[in-house]
């Protein structure tokens, strides 16, 4: 799925631009040296292990919290300014809503809090599509209904940028934020794929209709395929991967073949190895190509988005990859040459992995994460 530059507000604009962004809670950094640009009009997957700083990044982008260091701008504005707040909607993990208000009262509150920007018809359509009764108290709604209501509030504000912390409902979160009695009335909402599919469809349709940029934080990697066209991967509080999904996937190859000894075949190891896994008889490696992958007694295919993300998540030391479209463009914000993570004195963007693709910025080759004797038997089996 790719919505392209021509959509609505997408052409050439920047939705988020962060430079050296960092947030520290007491002594611990939740996010550090975070530098990237998200072009407008994208549906961006924000991926990372638990504690990687995803929620912190979203909170910084929505002005909910202030940076300890660095800067972030959203749609050209400071997130904590009235302009920034008007342009951004943030649906947080807990979906904080007033449980005693009815749905209609909640929408009325949304209208009063967003004078001049409120689209009541849009809000009512979303709650209607989600089969959310207008006269029901929020505290009695299911996880899916609460999400529809939260999305109704978000889209009715007509935001340029929607930040969504987790595609809901997710395990154990049904009734979160409600009284115990109210939570007891909420049907259990496990990771029902149909519900998630319905909500993803709603999100995509609305985002396409309004030209909204969406940042979607998620743990469920398989579900991001076909939903997101842009990728932002955090690890250890830093950006590890950023760019168009197609470009990022296209720069990598998944190689599987018979194992000969403890090391990868030299012609495979010559590429930037993101992750290598061995069983007794087979090796599986995700490599960032430096040129073409030589033919040999192995199979080389393009990884799926899930396979690629898993490789990066399992290999926290793999070198970063930042596509040119994810590089900040604002001259005021641009990093000094030679600053991390570029190579001092060298152009910031390394050679293109594929001649038909734009160049990508990458760290030094050889950052392999090597998992010995891992019983991973090939493509699609990663878990
Ligand atoms: N208000 C806070 N006070 C102290 N530490 C915090 C606070 N919020 C987050 N942290 C810490 O900052 C780090 C990043 O947290 P954050 O919630 O941003 O990660 P995350 O990637 O969203 O994780 P998850 O996927 O589990 O939601 C974690 O170590 C977390 O414990």
Automatic annotation (TrEMBL):
Domain ABC transporter: 16-261
Keywords assigned: ATP-binding, Nucleotide-binding, Transport
GO molecular function: ATP binding; ATP hydrolysis activity
Region (Disordered) location: 323-383
Protein name, as recorded: ABC transporter ATP-binding protein
Record organism: Streptomyces inhibens
Lineage: Bacteria, Bacillati, Actinomycetota, Actinomycetes, Kitasatosporales
